[in-house]
């Protein structure tokens, strides 16, 4: 089962962060979680003075993302901090308040620095020790209606990280009564799925697409035991662009995918597919990892 008691939305009063507020609030209402809105100020914030964070509740009322009754049931706490870099302050606050999930827009106010250092959102995702729900600040088409999830996509590379993402997606699907789509993209560097072969002679004639479909079917049966509908898909091409194209074509409502690296160059390289997907899809992307804080309880 999912355990989400505290949700944090970093808010810088830009359209990107405003766009994610209704999604975070809808999830908080669904999970009966506390909802924190954090504004981090620094020297570059002179044109953007700290605002009245309690007014966020009135803003959310106007969006109509959730009913007024649900909105009244959500504990919304606004906090303003100015004690360090933006990403570092977000993580520090999340640790202090034992936040289960961070929800954020991916387009911050770092200007040209983004080309070298990445946006605040990308930095938060790379360094997070807990799941992050990211929503592209600007894109083609509208994001799904907050809280309305019918199809959840999980890109699968058959690593343990991807398997954990699939388990989280299945639990999320149980909450929202949604379908899980498992997608494997066969690329030139794709490793063969680790699944016992029926026989050596048969396996010699099986291509990577068929191997992947078999392995996905096995994974799908395991997730189906949780009571959620599962569909499996295999595509060929570049990983990030193929995932994004699938999500658009199939009208995906949310994507759950893993990030692997913890520090340094490893984290940057292994997180590149997730970051590229976030940049190119209009739907929310939940990034999970096998270390740090989890929103999936080990047992029901």
TrEMBL record:
SUPFAM superfamilies: Adenine nucleotide alpha hydrolases-like. Residues 189-208 are annotated as: Disordered. InterPro entries: Rossmann-like_a/b/a_fold (IPR014729), Universal_stress_UspA (IPR006015), UspA (IPR006016). Residues 5-136, 148-289 form the UspA domain. It comes from the Bacteria. Belongs to the universal stress protein A family. This is Nucleotide-binding universal stress UspA family protein.
């Amino acid at each position: 089962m999912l355990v989400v008691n505290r949700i944090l939305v970093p808010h810088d009063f830009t359209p990107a962060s405003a766009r994610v507020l209704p999604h975070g609030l809808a999830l908080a209402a669904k999970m009966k979680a506390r909802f924190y809105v954090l504004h981090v100020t620094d020297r570059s914030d002179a044109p953007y003075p700290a605002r009245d964070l309690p007014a966020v509740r009135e803003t959310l009322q106007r969006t109509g993302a959730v009913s007024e009754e649900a909105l009244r049931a959500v504990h919304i706490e606004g906090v303003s901090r100015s004690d360090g870099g933006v990403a570092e302050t977000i993580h520090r606050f999340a640790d202090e308040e034992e936040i289960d999930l961070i929800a954020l827009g991916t387009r911050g106010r770092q200007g040209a620095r983004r080309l070298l250092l990445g946006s605040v959102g990308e930095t938060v995702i790379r360094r997070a020790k807990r799941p992050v729900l990211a929503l592209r600040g600007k894109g083609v088409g509208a994001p799904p209606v907050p809280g309305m999830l019918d199809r959840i996509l999980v890109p699968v590379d058959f690593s343990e990280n991807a398997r954990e993402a699939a388990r989280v997606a299945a639990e999320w699907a149980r909450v929202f009564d949604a379908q899980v789509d498992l997608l494997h993209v066969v690329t030139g560097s794709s490793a063969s799925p680790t699944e016992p072969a029926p026989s050596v002679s048969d396996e010699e004639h099986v291509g990577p697409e068929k191997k992947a479909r078999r392995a996905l079917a096995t994974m799908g049966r395991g997730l189906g035991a949780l009571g959620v509908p599962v569909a499996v898909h295999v595509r060929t091409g570049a990983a990030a662009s193929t995932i994004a194209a699938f999500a658009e074509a199939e009208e995906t409502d949310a994507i759950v995918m893993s990030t692997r690296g913890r520090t340094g160059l490893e984290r940057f390289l292994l997180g590149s597919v997730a970051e590229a997907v976030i940049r190119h899809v209009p739907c929310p992307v939940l990034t999970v990892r096998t270390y740090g804080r989890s929103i999936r309880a080990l047992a029901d």
